[in-house]
Sequence to fold (190 residues):
Amino acid sequence: MADQRHQEASGAQPGSEQDAVHVAAMVEEALPRTAVFACAACGAVLTGPLKRLPAVPEVPFYAWWEAEEMGPSPATVPLGCYAIETEPYDPPLVVAGIPGPATPRRGTLHDIDGQPLASRGPRGNVVMNPEDSRGLTTRHASSACCGATPDGGLNQVCACGTLVATLCSDCCLPYELRLSPDHVRALPVR
Fold:
């Protein structure tokens, strides 16, 4: 609510470049350099200590079609680190005015009529290496040949039953886990 008032006062439009800069500035101020992340519903710790990166790294090149063994791509974020996604991620996907990636680090998706789609999901997802998570299980995951896709949105559940994250683990997609900013909280590590 306060964020919406700030956007209105500053003239930022949701989904605009100005809005992305605003989100990045809020994150820089709000999140600790080193944190563990916990379920907002029950307080269960979902990660070990993670150090904040200044931005989500570029996806490592991986020729998945030439791999000797099927499995996930190399992780986008190194072990022991996290970064904040300033772009929208997860559903809803809506028809976009121009073709482009539906979500960051993902190719173009189209609806049944061939119209390009773009995410209007939340900003501020915590992007991390899936190997740094603790106590999460997969539920409602859209699957592909050898892992989960983010197409269905939140697919990782805390022990209390709350959906808290989206796992992307198929071989042809970036290997990353995105904690939902609405379902987890950061606890500073001193």
